[in-house]
Design goal:
Largest sheet of chain A: 5 strands, mixed
Strand order of the largest sheet of chain A: 3-2-1-5-8
Number of helices of chain A: 11
Oligomer: heterodimer
Number of helices of chain B: 16
Radius of gyration of chain A: 30 Å
Shape of chain A: elongated
Shape of chain B: globular
Number of domains of chain A: 3
Structural class of chain B: mainly alpha
Distance between the termini of chain A: 75 Å
Helix content of chain A: 40-55%
Largest sheet of chain B: none
CATH superfamily of the largest domain in chain A: Cupredoxins -  blue copper proteins
Distance between the termini of chain B: 29 Å
Helix content of chain B: 55-70%
Radius of gyration of chain B: 23 Å
CATH architecture of the largest domain in chain A: Sandwich
Bound molecules: protoporphyrin IX containing FE, copper (II) ion
């Protein structure tokens, strides 16, 4: 290829990239403006730095292109002899420093705003789990505090290309996070296992969820709507499959929703708080066992060895109760035995454990109260 | 290589290489070892490249088609590790071996036997790393940055082999750097003062210090992991009172200098090539040296810019933002100097020059996105998205990798005595150039639009640009077979190269015959006018 040809290629390629970018929707290729004051400021900041880079790029690359066109040996250019110019060198050190300082000013003030939210109206603890999110609506009154998990609902058939993919493919959950508009909502982000990252692009909120730490971030959303994000830190196999969906609703709707959730929570609180009799536990336990555990351990407790161990006569189910509680609460990593502490409430767990110790011919005779399980689940 | 042997056949004592395979196993010759490093690096480049194509095939369309998420994560992890530690770093060590003695007027490297060890432990390290793919539980799947506790408590059993492999790579790098430093400081020809050294030598000297400073940190980091996994400590385990964020601090204290380890020698290569084909002395030699040194210094004090979202207090965020922005200044100085070198030159555009110019432009684009990433509030949106993937691929592929290719085309005639085929070389360049941009430019778009990195599947809105990126990746990948073909063809024959090879070339290596004799300068050269053009 001759040299003019090469240049034509270069120009053609870059115009192709630019035009393909321009013809696609701007929102498909640029940062979102989002729906909070902060996200708007972040977007502006992004556009400013981007603009600065484009201008510098045009100057630098423009000089190079002019030079490549004019200073070619093939058109008889002779090389000059300069190889130093102190003034020039000082200039192109000072000017970038000035540009950087002017960029640092708005960046600093935006960051300041992000770090100083003031008092929050709503506090929600966000806990990352492999591979779902758990939202706890904190309240000083434990009766009014409640939590639930939120996981992907996109069917496996869509993921494996059997069924057609719908609009919110991979970005749909069973129980979205619900927040009121025009209110400061504080997220206290943490994790139960590995590091995750809580990211909602429309709020310009991204905070790593780190086990053992609680970090704060916040948003005040001005427009009602449904906002979608994803876990942003590699957290294992299903890292790509733990989206975040936030429903921002009017204050009225939020109040109704929260009242309903609190009633449910209060009911559970009552149940968990009271003293259960052995019979009550056994009755409830049988129901939970058949609903949740029997698929693997079988209704008669014989299991399907070697895949699923029998509970009848099992060392754990007839041994010290703490070992039994541990495996049901935390599961066993690397096996099909999951951590049911994440899925069942304290009453369900206490009753199913009591049931397992006193059914299928097991006859330990002891029991555990939901209260005690609850204490273990909420961290003593 | 046979020509090399004949060169010295008539010497009064035997200087030539051994015959057969033992020549390569036992060699202490800087050129042989350089060749070994370069071939090893190329094999790793293709291996890591195949993994990249697995990743890009899976991402060609939304949905899971080719691999399961578990294996996908193993591919991203192994791809990153192999490219960084197996392809880019050994390639530069190979170039240093070939070039440093020839550039400073020395007969060989200062510590030839250590040179041999430092190469030969590498194949074992990578064999061990690759063997984890066949182990129960699979290969490491926690990303090349291997954040704890995903890489400790939750890691597959093969993590122990990964740790051992990293230790060996570290030992190899440290030995290699000691060798480079000792050679440069002790074996320069009389009259070659530090400020007369070619920039490639300068950049490597600084890189070698960086390596010696940070490889032990990496070793400490993986050793702490090993202790956590096998000996019951809790450095990174919150449940035991440890701190997962400590891992990231230690890792990035190694990691950020590491990225400069992968780019400084590239600066040296480009600073050699542009003056040659512009037929004009390098502009601002001294400021180039100072800029390199300041970049190296700054690289130690900016590490937490990879961790803006972990919850650092605002004073920390601000400090790391300002310090990171500062790096743009010496980086800018370098770019301006290259442009000023081209300005009013008398340019021709042979393949090495094309790669070098593409380097300047595309590396600068990577520098721009780096500057954007430094702005903390904006980084909250960019971090861990494809925007970061675009950033570091722009600095690493058309940056580091292009510079290695430029170097190979530029010095291959000196190494083999034969000219490569210019038309083929240019074809390779254009295919690579188009492939690289098709692959990585659209990643800026999907990243900004919200696509996280390290995911095997994505929402439909990202489909178009992912498809373009995958096509580009295949174009780029397969173009490298052409590179292999060109290099082999040149080694086996071709138009004979002159000693000077390039009309505008300056430097001691060009005063040697082509191909260069087995021992570079047996008597020190005296003509220091050649030194830096
Ligand atoms: C102007 C100079 C540069 C600046 C200001 C800069 C800045 C940054 C920042 C702030 C990040 C973190 C982004 C994030 O994760 O949110 C980053 C990531 C990265 N940069 Fe740069 N960078 C520069 C040059 C380079 C160079 C020269 C290289 C290598 C040759 C490089 C390689 C990388 C890599 C590999 C990562 C990603 C690591 C990972 O998370 O896997 N950067 N850069
Ligand atoms: Cu994740
Ligand atoms: Cu960095």
């Amino acid at each position: 290829m001759d040299k003019a040809g090469q240049l034509k290629w270069l120009v053609a390629l870059s115009s192709l990239l630019v035009s393909s970018a321009a013809s696609a929707g701007w929102s498909d290729i640029n940062m979102r403006q989002g729906v909070t004051e902060i996200s708007h400021r972040v977007y502006e900041l992004h556009m400013i730095i981007f603009g600065v880079c484009v201008v510098i790029g045009i100057l630098v690359f423009g000089t190079m292109i002019v030079s490549m066109l004019m200073h070619r040996k093939s058109i008889g250019a002779k090389s000059a002899d300069f190889h130093d110019n102190t003034k020039l060198e000082i200039l192109w050190t000072i000017i970038p420093i000035i540009i950087l300082i002017t960029l640092a000013v708005p960046a600093t003030s935006t960051l300041n705003a992000m770090y100083n939210p003031g008092e929050a109206d709503v506090n929600i603890q966000v806990t990352g789990h492999q591979w779902k999110w758990q939202y706890t609506y904190l309240n000083d009154d434990p009766r009014k505090q409640f939590k639930y998990t939120s996981s992907l609902v996109t069917p496996q058939d869509e993921i494996h290309n059997v069924a057609a993919k719908r609009e919110h493919y991979l970005l749909d959950v069973d129980n979205p996070l619900v927040i009121p508009v025009h209110k400061k909502v504080k997220f206290l982000v943490t994790s139960a296992d590995v590091i995750h990252s809580f990211w909602v692009p429309d709020f310009a909120v991204k905070k790593d969820a780190i086990p053992g730490f609680v970090h704060e971030t916040w948003a005040q959303v001005d427009e009602p709507g449904v906002y979608r994000g994803q876990c942003a830190e590699l957290c294992g196999k299903d890292h790509g499959f733990m989206p975040i969906v936030v429903r921002a609703v009017s204050q009225n709707e939020y109040d109704d929703w929260i009242a309903k959730k609190r009633d449910e929570a209060a009911a559970v609180y009552e149940i968990v708080g009271k003293e259960w009799t052995h019979d009550e536990l056994m009755q409830k336990g049988e129901e939970v066992y058949n609903r949740v555990c029997a698929t693997c351990h079988q209704p008669n407790g014989q299991g399907l060895p070697p895949a699923f161990p029998a509970l009848a006569g099992s060392a754990i189910a007839t041994g010290p109760i703490q070992g039994h509680i541990d495996i049901v609460l935390h599961g066993k990593a690397g096996t099909a035995m999951q951590a049911f502490g994440q899925q069942l409430n304290a009453a369900e767990i206490a009753s199913v454990i009591t049931y397992e110790r006193n059914a299928f011919g097991n006859n330990v005779g002891d029991m555990v109260q939901p209260k005690e399980i609850n204490a273990m689940m909420t961290g003593e | 290589m046979s020509a090399v042997i004949e060169e010295h056949h008539h010497d009064d004592h035997h200087h030539g290489p051994d015959k057969g395979i033992m020549r390569w196993v036992l060699t202490t010759n800087h050129k042989d070892i350089g060749t070994l490093y370069l071939w090893f690096s190329f094999i790793m480049f293709l291996t890591g490249g195949v993994m990249a194509l697995v990743i890009r095939s899976e991402l060609f369309q939304p949905g899971l088609q080719i691999v399961e998420p578990e294996f996908f994560n193993q591919m991203t992890t192994m791809h990153g590790l192999i490219m960084v530690f197996g392809a880019v770093m050994p390639a530069f060590v190979g170039l240093a071996n070939w070039l440093v003695p020839m550039m400073i007027g020395a007969p060989d490297m200062a510590l030839p036997r250590m040179n041999n060890y430092s190469f030969w432990i590498l194949p074992f390290a990578f064999a061990m790393l690759l063997s984890t793919l066949f182990m129960e539980g699979g290969a490491p799947n926690f990303g090349w940055t291997f954040y704890a506790p995903l890489s400790t408590t939750y890691a597959p059993p093969s993590v122990t082999f990964f740790i051992f492999a990293v230790h060996i790579m570290g030992a190899s790098s440290i030995m290699g750097s000691i060798n480079v430093i000792v050679t440069i400081l002790n074996l320069r020809a009389p009259g070659m003062t530090l400020m007369k050294m070619p920039l490639f030598v300068w950049t490597w000297l600084i890189t070698a210090y960086l390596l010696i400073a940070v490889m032990p940190v990496l070793a400490g980091c993986v050793t702490m992991m090993l202790m956590d996994i096998h000996f019951g400590t809790s450095f990174f385990n919150a449940a035991g009172g440890g701190d997962p964020v400590l891992f990231q601090h230690v890792f990035w204290f190694f990691g950020h200098p590491e990225v400069y380890i992968m780019i400084l020698p590239a600066f040296g290569v480009v600073s050699a090539i542009i003056p040659t084909f512009a037929r004009k002395r390098l502009f601002g030699y001294a400021s180039m040296v100072y800029a390199t040194a300041s970049i190296a210094f700054l690289s130690f004090i900016v590490w937490a810019h990879h961790m803006f979202t972990v919850g650092i207090p605002i004073s920390g965020e601000l400090y790391f933002m300002y310090a990171t922005m500062l790096i743009a200044v010496p980086t800018g100085v370098k770019v301006f100097n290259w442009v000023a070198t081209m300005w009013q030159g008398s340019m021709t555009f042979e393949t090495p020059m094309l790669f070098a110019i593409a380097f300047v432009i595309l590396f600068t684009i990577g520098g721009f996105s780096g500057l954007m990433l430094a702005i903390v509030p904006a980084d909250f949106q960019y971090h861990d998205t494809y925007f970061v993937v675009a950033h570091f691929h722009y600095v690493l592929v058309p940056g580091s990798v292009f510079s290695v290719m430029a170097a190979v085309y530029y010095w291959l005639p000196k190494w083999t005595g034969n000219m490569y085929n210019e038309a083929l070389g240019k074809t390779h360049f254009w295919l690579s150039f188009i492939g690289v941009n098709l692959t990585f430019f659209p990643m800026h778009f999907v990243g900004l639009a919200g696509m996280p990195r390290r995911i095997p599947d994505y929402n439909l809105q990202f489909a178009d640009y992912n498809m373009i990126a995958s096509c580009g990746a295949f174009l780029f990948g397969f173009s490298q077979l052409l590179f292999l073909f060109i290099v082999i063809k040149t080694i086996r024959g071709g138009k004979k190269a002159t000693d000077r090879v390039w009309e505008g070339a300056h430097g001691l290596e060009w005063t040697l015959p082509s191909p260069a004799p087995y021992h570079s300068f047996t008597t020190p050269p005296t003509n220091m006018e050649e030194a830096h053009g």
